[in-house]
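testing teh design pipeline on a random one, pls ignore if ur not involved
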């Protein structure tokens, strides 16, 4: 394959199943002058499998300036560079932003070679609305910061997609249950494209129990998707939410009633609270 010269190719690689490698990705990696990789040892396995012998060099976004400069120098010399990450699409919760930005600023052509991406695969098979969504990547690992980040998403009406480490997934689902309410639908998408692929949709409260009861669900690579909050349509509520709110408001202050009703109905807390104000 004849590649254009002085081009930076951004090449997606499999997220587990090597059969998902696209032919164009193999051709570009075989023909490039140099491949910049997140972890050269990890990528060596991919290279052996596809008989790719192109030299590899390590690249992280926190790589020293010298590393970025060297790659840019190679582009200036007319060489063709490919960027890969350990798995999936570079720059999606992976390094590459700095290099792409600088390459473009210096006028080099940057060409994507699309392919696997865990969140796209998860969203395509989850059964949650996919017409509008927000990719949130990894939440902060500390519980307080994570809760804050989730609270900021309290009113988000689009499907939310997260990446999570296996040892944190249960804590994260519990925190989501707390913030979004146990009735909100969510999906755990685990080990996609691999032998133990699991895609499971349940209301958050049930999903927490399901994951807690089976430690296998806390292993491997995991994406979590959460349905967005119900759209705020003026201050109107569905009949069931109105009934629950009316009962609770007879006993509780509006804020507490809205929080409890959100748990029961899965409807956004703010929407319930606003409705209570409109009833005064
Ligand atoms: N660049 C990758 C992409 O395109 O999806 C993501 C890299 S990020 C460092 C790794 C995270 O992606 C994992 O912790 C997990 O949350 C998610 N992930 C990667 N492969 C996955 C898979 N096979 N199944 C489910 N989630 C996966």
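output:
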């Amino acid at each position: 394959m004849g590649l254009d010269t002085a081009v930076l190719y951004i090449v997606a690689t499999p997220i587990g199943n090597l059969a998902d490698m696209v032919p164009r990705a193999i051709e570009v990696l075989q023909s490039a002058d140099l491949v910049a990789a997140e972890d050269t040892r990890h990528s060596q396995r991919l290279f052996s499998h596809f008989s790719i012998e192109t030299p590899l060099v390590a690249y992280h976004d926190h790589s020293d300036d010298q590393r970025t400069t060297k790659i840019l120098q190679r582009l200036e010399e007319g060489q063709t560079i490919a960027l890969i990450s350990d798995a999936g699409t570079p720059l999606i919760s992976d390094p590459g932003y700095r290099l792409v930005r600088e390459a473009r600023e210096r006028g080099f052509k940057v060409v994507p070679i699309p392919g696997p991406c865990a969140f796209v695969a998860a969203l395509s098979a989850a059964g949650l609305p996919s017409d509008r969504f927000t990719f949130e990547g990894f939440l902060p690992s500390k519980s307080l910061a994570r809760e804050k980040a989730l609270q900021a998403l309290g009113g988000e009406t689009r499907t939310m997609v997260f990446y999570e480490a296996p040892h944190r997934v249960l804590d994260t689902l519990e925190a989501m249950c707390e913030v979004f309410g146990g009735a909100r639908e969510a999906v755990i998408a685990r080990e996609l494209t691999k032998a133990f692929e699991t895609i499971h949709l349940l209301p958050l409260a049930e999903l927490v129990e399901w994951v807690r009861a089976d430690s296998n669900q806390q292993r491997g690579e995991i994406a979590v998707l959460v349905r967005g909050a119900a759209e705020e349509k003026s201050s109107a509520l569905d009949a069931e939410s109105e009934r629950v709110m009316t009962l609770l408001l007879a006993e509780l202050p509006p804020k507490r009633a809205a929080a409890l009703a959100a748990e029961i109905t899965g409807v956004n807390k703010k929407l319930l609270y606003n409705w209570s104000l409109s009833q005064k």
